[in-house]
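Quiz preparation item.
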């Protein structure tokens, strides 16, 4: 199908090609890699307006192109409906959203549809649902913020008796613990022998708590926290006892 441009007289009595550009009063369509339904309709109207009158397009052609336009519109409407339905399913879920200032995390309070776009509300602020990059399960959240004790080995030397320092996190947010119980083997350590620096997340076990342990032996230090899940952590901290064990502790060990 060929297209021709109409001509019109100029001010000098000659002829010039008429301006056939589509009105700029329409909303500017920037390249997105896809043909929107408005741009498709504009092309169709221009095609009908400037077709060759000596070789016009057939009715079948117009019907076919209108059918394509209708199919495009239905597909876009269906895509918007699916996207919005997915957004509503996020209510009550903990999600991670990408923002200009980095990723934020929170629970979706409600979903709002504005101009066909779905927005999720988190802590009083709204974000486009398309910015949601992750949906986090409750198990993952609990594990992420629960108390933690990294794997580490400490040593108690009878010849150089010093207190031991262990990295311990009480957790954060609503999953944090207020305190903990610590045991060496199956023996609970008295709280008088423990000190915790919450800011530095360092637990100090005073040297007297190790007195009486068998030199040359390795013990497992376990932790029980008073968080909502009653988290218990074992086999992450090993205690090695070295040095010349005092005679009085040897007698105690023999009696045991």
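Solution:
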């Amino acid at each position: 199908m060929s297209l021709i441009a109409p001509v019109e007289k100029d001010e000098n009595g000659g002829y010039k090609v008429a301006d056939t550009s589509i009105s700029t009063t329409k909303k500017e369509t920037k390249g997105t890699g896809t043909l929107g339904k408005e741009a498709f309709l504009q092309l169709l109207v221009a095609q009908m307006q400037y077709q060759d009158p000596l070789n016009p397009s057939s009715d079948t052609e117009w019907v076919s192109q209108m059918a394509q336009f209708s199919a495009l519109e239905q597909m876009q409407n269906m895509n918007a409906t699916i996207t919005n339905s997915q957004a509503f399913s996020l209510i009550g879920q903990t999600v991670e959203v990408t923002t200009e200032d980095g990723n934020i995390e929170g629970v979706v309070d409600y979903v709002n549809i504005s101009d066909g776009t779905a927005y999720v509300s988190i802590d009083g602020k709204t974000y486009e649902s398309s910015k949601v990059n992750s949906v986090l399960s409750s198990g993952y959240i609990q594990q992420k913020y629960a108390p933690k004790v990294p794997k580490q080995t400490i040593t108690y030397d009878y010849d150089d008796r010093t207190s031991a320092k262990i990295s311990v996190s009480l957790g954060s947010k609503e999953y944090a613990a207020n305190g903990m119980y610590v045991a060496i083997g199956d023996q609970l350590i008295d709280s008088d022998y423990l000190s915790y620096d919450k800011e530095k997340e360092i637990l100090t076990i005073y040297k007297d708590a190790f007195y009486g342990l068998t030199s040359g032996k390795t013990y497992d230090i376990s932790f029980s926290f008073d968080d909502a899940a009653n988290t218990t952590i074992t086999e992450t901290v090993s205690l090695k006892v070295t040095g010349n064990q005092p005679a009085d502790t040897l007698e105690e060990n023999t009696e045991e």
